[in-house]
Amino acid sequence: MKTATVLDLLKKHFALEPESAKVLVVGLGSTGISVAHYLQNMGFKFAIIDSRAKPPLMDEFFELMPGTPVFTGGFDDAAFKVATHLVVSPGLSLNEKSIMKAIANGSKIVSDIDLFACSVDAPIIAISGSNGKSTVTTMLGDMAKLAGKRVAIGGNLGVPALDLIDQKAELYVLELSSFQLERTTVLNAAAATVLNVSADHLDRHVDLAEYAQEKQRIFNGNGVMVINADDAIVSAMQESGRQTYTFSIKKTADFYLADRDGVDDCMDATTKGWSMDRSRATQGAVAEYLWHNDNLLMPLAELPLEGRHNAANALAALALGVAVGLDEQLMCAALRKFKGLEHRMQRVAEIRGVTWVNDSKATNIGACVAALEGYARKVILIAGGDAKGADMNELTPVIKEKAKSVVLMGKDGPLIGQALKASDVPVYAAENMVQAVQIAAGLAESGDSVLLSPACASLDQYKNYQDRGNKFTKAVLGLAG
């Protein structure tokens, strides 16, 4: 998009003009640096502020933009007082006193996603949800690439949105968090979805209703809505008069999962280039397929991912792709090749007949529930960490149904233990990941699965969920030695 057009849009929507605006970028992380690059390229005057004495990326930033005013070690009211516009990092709450005071005094909030939306004219696919959004974002990116599209992928996942801007891009696929969406006003995605809503980030949002309301902002505009028909909160977001695709793994929808059985079905699949396992057919086993209305797309058995919830992720990705015109068979070909993401139902190893699965990205209750529901047999669950204010009693029914035993660790492990007191599921306590893996190994028998799906954040004991997952992997591989 031409610079003059972008500037016109910024002026129209936010009264943001290079001649008069004084922009304060709040937070010197990867998003803050991407905003700084954007503002510099567009000719805006700006400064950066960060409450930390030395943000991790400060040295890198000074090398790139040595003349930029940077305030660290706290929030100086003087810096906020002169700002006409604030671009606040998603990691910071808008309820910070200095930010609230600046807004009350007339400063306008602009998000990096707003800036992005005003700067590109290629279609945007926007993806949010409590769980699965990184998987669906990556799936859809792979689908677009296989279809020959020049696609840029990022947002809350990987590359910040503003660093994706490319005049040659034909499609943008953005993962968006509730923190990004709560301060975004002009996004009009060609297709958007909220995959699901479960209790998460209640340390930042007042309650589940407010959290869902922020997620719903992804549907602002007039693009195609992709709705999870299995989630009551998401289903309530559907708007009359809007083009909508629904997806479900429990019932018939626009995109859904359904059973087919017998040799004939597998013969039909073979004619479409599928490689359904013949032994299942000859045994008369029921085969499940992904469908789009009356069109058979592919066998679920060819989706190389753990857990039935990944069937829902695949259906959502297919719906979003169809919404922007991607070829269904090419999208299915991409799904067959999709190996999943690290720390998301990642199969680590099979040791002495026991399968070990790393789902460290399950930082909330909904993610853990989805992981457990994906198993037909009971598993040994490793859980615990920082619950972020969530009610751990919500885990009890699914753990009672799906867990053979539970190993708990971390700050709020005892909360889960308390919630499970009335159940008959054996509970064990561990001080750290090595001990948790050793306890689980002692409990597991050949044919069992041990699932790390914490239902909690990781920062009570680890740098992040990746660090937690890596520690799990290291401890599991240590068993083989």
Count of discrete alpha- or pi-helical segments spanning 4 or more residues: 19
Structural class: alpha/beta
CATH superfamily of the largest domain: Mur-like, catalytic domain
N-to-C CA distance: 56 Å
**Low-pLDDT segments, ≥5 res:** 261-285
User: What's the total count of β strands?
Assistant: 20
Mean pLDDT: 90
Number of domains: 3
Largest sheet: 9 strands, mixed
Briefly, what CATH class of the largest domain?
A: Alpha Beta
Assign a percent range to the helix content.
25-40%
CA radius of gyration is 24 Å
How would you characterize this protein structure?
- The chain is built from 19 helices and 20 strands.
- With 481 residues, the protein is of the alpha/beta class.
- The strands form three sheets. It has a nine-stranded mixed beta sheet.
- The radius of gyration is 24 Å and the shape is globular.
- It starts with a helix and ends with a helix.
Fold blueprint:
Layout: H1 3-14, E1 22-26, H2 30-42, E2 45-50, H3 58-64, E3 70-72, H4 77-81, E4 85-88, H5 97-104, E5 108-109, H6 112-117, E6 124-128, H7 133-146, E7 151-155, E8 171-175, H8 178-181, E9 191-194, H9 208-216, E10 224-228, H10 232-235, E11 244-248, E12 255-261, H11 263-271, H12 278-282, E13 286-292, E14 295-299, H13 309-323, H14 328-337, E15 346-351, E16 354-358, H15 365-373, E17 379-383, H16 396-402, E18 403-408, H17 413-419, E19 427-429, H18 433-443, E20 449-452, H19 465-480
Parallel strand pairs: 1-2, 1-4, 2-3, 4-5, 6-8, 6-9, 7-8, 9-10, 10-11, 11-12, 16-20, 17-18, 17-20, 18-19
Antiparallel strand pairs: 12-13, 13-14, 15-16
Helix pairs in contact: 7-13, 7-14, 13-14, 18-19
